[in-house]
């Protein structure tokens, strides 16, 4: 870096992402340098495919063979536009940090070598880089993203706010993905196999009884229900007939107020990543109910509310 070049500050709102992690790995042996100083990328090296090992921390569990072939065809015509990233283990021995699809497609295309950035990274940095690179650049399914988030929290010792910064997502979005891991295995498999969408899954999370979750899940697949219809089924499941009779006898709430209350309830539910019941009568009195499924779920909600 030239002596008169000013450090480049990245905006926190965009998340640190893979680029910042790569810079960190380049800087790990220089404690005196500022964390916000941009380090020039190392030169691109042409490395034989035979000298590159796959990444043991690769979060993707399934590669679409047809998509890989399409990428291989593109590489045959255009070459590799974006170099892969590796770390050097020994002389003539490298390990992938990111770019496994490009690596695998290059093999299919019959290439003998690929352009690559060579970085220094320990095992934890390898895991973090691989996870974030996949989350940001690959078309992962919702369950793979959820597992990646969980691994970043557990194995990289990150807190949810730090994780949000890393992947450029707010904490509510991160929470919504993590909650998918509380669903029964059958429903998780349905997400993985794209039998249901993230929207379907988020509706099913609000059903507390597993047998009822599975019943709605099977009905969703059999009848190809939309997200809106699944949400209606879940809502009907929570409605108490006796309570509805009492409510029906009360004066009707002003339509404008009712609409605003509904929007506020949706915002609260989205922010907390949990089902919320917000009620108000014609005298502007009411209550907010926030159910939770476990002690961990309660702590999560309390953290969001900044009570603990």
TrEMBL record:
CDD domains: SPO0J_N. Residues 45-135 form the ParB-like N-terminal domain. PANTHER family: CHROMOSOME-PARTITIONING PROTEIN PARB-RELATED. InterPro entries: Chromosome_partition/occlusion, HTH_ParB/Spo0J, ParB/RepB/Spo0J, ParB/Sulfiredoxin_sf, ParB_dimer_C, ParB_N. This is ParB/RepB/Spo0J family partition protein. Residues 1-42 are annotated as: Disordered. Belongs to the ParB family. It comes from the Bacteria. SMART domains: ParB (SM00470). It comes from Echinicola arenosa. Pfam families: HTH_ParB, ParB_C, ParB_N. Keywords: Chromosome partition, DNA-binding.
